[in-house]
Amino acid sequence: MEAAPSQPVLLYDGECGLCNAVMRFMLKNDRRGVLMFAPLQGRTGQDFLRGHGLDAGNFDSIVFIEDLGRADTPFYLRTTGALKALGTLGGFYGKLAGVLSVVPASLRDVVYKIIARTRYRIFGRYHPTPLPDPAWRKRILD
């Protein structure tokens, strides 16, 4: 019996304009179609946060989950999560993620936290609009 393929998922702030732009960028550039997405505010996001002892009311960090189907799956926050997600795209973006990973997370996360605190003011709140590609819709979890 073959093992089921892993299902990497990126949890993101569904109300953040920047976060939604990043999600659309990743959908467009994930040519293998392996990365799934779920808003932190949705059922999938809330269940994961609560089940892993994370604050279900804090939407200031993305969460990259290596395999949503495994209870003991590794997960990563802030820039480490962003780079892990970027790495799933492979090609140029995978290499870019590797290069950026050389910078210590403590330094990367300083910038991340500043952006997280000001993201609504700078990028606005996101008002859901239909995704243009039906194949993309299948990759967004509730």
Automatic annotation (TrEMBL):
InterPro entries: DCC1-like, DCC_oxidoreductase. Pfam families: DCC1-like (PF04134). It comes from the Bacteria. One of its GO terms (molecular function) is protein-disulfide reductase activity. Transmembrane segments: none annotated. This is DUF393 domain-containing protein. It comes from Rariglobus hedericola.
